[in-house]
């Protein structure tokens, strides 16, 4: 009788430890695999990392396109003396509605491929992806032939009589 109670308690302890180990593994793998549109959470610092490809000297600063691995952003300022990086930080701070000090370029200061860290622990990767999706241009604006006529003037500005 005593041995069966001890065996039962040992079995319960082993079962609980296995369940806790599986829960820990599940949480850690979700933390590492949470990657969408080039947005993921750093497991060490818990910052949100955003992969960007920056095209400088555009007519205006706009989020141009999104791939599975990175965000393509056109920046209005040229890439001299870090002006492009500052403009990128200002643009992303407006998208995410955070202070500029909470964003920093951690990789690619002098490259077109950049990794920007968002230092907010309360943000989740899906919420950041949702904000990025809200700032994408409509699909119709990506097809310029649809709106432009032969003279080069946009069709949407034509007056209707």
Short synopsis of the structure:
With 161 residues, the protein is α+β, with helices and mostly antiparallel strands.
Question: Any overview of this molecule?
Answer:
The chain is of the alpha+beta class and 161 residues long. It has two domains: 33 residues; 103 residues, YggU-like (Conserved Hypothetical Protein Mth637, Chain: A). The chain contains four helices and seven strands; from the N terminus they run H-E-E-E-E-E-H-E-E-H-H. Strands 1, 2, 3, 4, 5, 6 and 7 form a seven-stranded mixed β-sheet that branches. A hairpin with a 6-residue loop joins strand 2 and strand 3. The protein is elongated.
How is the CATH topology of the largest domain named?
Answer: Conserved Hypothetical Protein Mth637, Chain: A
Q: What is the terminal-to-terminal distance?
A: 98 Å
Record field, number of beta strands: 7
**SSE order, as H and E?**
HEEEEEHEEHH
Helicity range: 25-40%
- Poorly predicted ranges (pLDDT <50, ≥5 residues)? 28-33, 142-161
CATH architecture of the largest domain: 2-Layer Sandwich
Dominant shape: elongated
Largest sheet: 7 strands, mixed
């Amino acid at each position: 009788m005593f041995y069966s109670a001890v065996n039962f308690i040992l079995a319960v302890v082993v079962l609980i430890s296995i369940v806790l180990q599986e829960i820990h593994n599940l949480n850690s793998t979700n933390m590492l695999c949470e990657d969408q549109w080039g947005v993921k959470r750093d497991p060490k610092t818990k910052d949100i990392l955003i992969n960007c490809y920056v095209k400088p000297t555009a007519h205006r600063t706009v989020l141009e396109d999104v791939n599975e691995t990175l965000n393509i952003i056109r920046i209005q300022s040229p890439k001299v003396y870090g002006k492009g990086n500052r403009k990128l930080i200002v643009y992303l701070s407006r998208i995410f509605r955070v202070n500029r000090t909470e964003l920093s370029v951690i990789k690619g200061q002098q490259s077109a491929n950049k990794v920007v860290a968002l230092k907010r622990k309360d943000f989740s990767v899906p919420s950041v992806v949702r904000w990025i999706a809200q700032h994408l241009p409509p699909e119709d604006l990506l097809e310029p032939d649809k709106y432009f006529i032969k003279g080069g003037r946009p069709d949407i500005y034509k007056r209707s009589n």
